[in-house]
Structures are given as structure tokens and as C-alpha cells.
Amino acid sequence: MIYTLLKLKLLKLTLLGTFGAGVVATIIAKDMRKKKKTEDIDN
Question: What's the structural domain count of the chain?
Fold first, then answer.
């Protein structure tokens, strides 16, 4: 019982971590795209 509960908590943490990493990667990609557009305009 405790083992199953621990496994579920670990899975939830892993999923949250993956989701968080995805969100961070998306934000960074958007920021980089924005910078690239402004650089293109400057040139």
C-alpha cells in the first residue's frame, strides 16, 4: 500500500517536472524568436 502510494507520488512529481521543463522551453523559444525578429528589423 505505502509502496504504491510512493510510486504514484514519484510519478506525479516526474510528470510535473516534465511539464515544467516543457513550459520553460516554450518560454525560452518564444523569447529567442522575439529577439531574432528584432535583430532582423535592425538589419
Answer: 1
